[in-house]
Amino acid sequence: MTSPNQDARPGNASIDHLVLHYTGMQSAEAAIARLCDPAAKVSAHYVVAEDGTIHALVPENRRAWHAGVSFWRGARALNDRSVGIEIVNPGHEFGYRRFPAAQMAAVASLCRAILARNPIPPRNVVAHSDIAPDRKQDPGELFPWSWLAEQGVGFWTGEVAAPGDLMADLAAIGYDMSLDPAVVVAAFQRRFRPARVDGIADAETAGRAAAIRELVEAACVFI
């Protein structure tokens, strides 16, 4: 099935971001129907069902409409330069739950294939909540980012460094610091400290941000 909700990428846009979402709907069928409804004006390149089935809706060389108003590391309008994957999960509104092993195996395989085709550095493998923290929570605090990094997709560290300037560290990682700081802190926690998502800038959150900044600025993350 192909979604009509797509158009040409800008002529000079290279694909250098990978954005992961959850569908936030009650079934895969409902999500795909919405992503293929011209009236909805939303789409993604891929949908991954809970049983691991991958549905390709928009060719990677075309622009899918999944990111909306977005920002990461100075870039805006990330639809122009990203591939979007919708991962079937009812989300926080309909009974948020963990992502099954078969689904995550398919997500990891799909992500590795996308990364092999496009020059996307680990620092630009992001959550929808990273690039739109004032609007989105997906794929949420139950998403296994650390496991995915072990599969060669994105980056992770369990280290906690000496706390520095948290706001400066979040900006260096990529977040839009023109937003409410508590909203940005919560988005960072949802991604890198999922056991506590409260927007409070405590010492451990600051230490994790310092460690993530060090990782992002390391040469290996720029490959």
From TrEMBL:
InterPro entries: Amidase/PGRP_sf, Amidase_domain, NAMLAA_amidase_2, PGBD-like_sf, PGBDSf
Gene3D superfamilies to which the protein is assigned, alphabetical: Peptidoglycan recognition protein-like, PGBD-like superfamily/PGBD
Pfam entry (one): Amidase_2
TM stretches of this protein: none
This protein's record includes keyword Hydrolase: yes
Keywords per UniProt: Cell wall biogenesis/degradation, Hydrolase
Residue span(s) of domain N-acetylmuramoyl-L-alanine amidase: 3-140
E.C. designation(s): 3.5.1.28
Residues in coiled coil: none
Known catalytic reactions: Hydrolyzes the link between N-acetylmuramoyl residues and L-amino acid residues in certain cell-wall glycopeptides
Keyword Transmembrane helix tagged: no
PANTHER family referenced in this protein's UniProt entry, alphabetically: N-ACETYLMURAMOYL-L-ALANINE AMIDASE AMID
Family to which the UniProt record says this protein belongs: Belongs to the N-acetylmuramoyl-L-alanine amidase 2 family.
Name the record gives this protein: N-acetylmuramoyl-L-alanine amidase
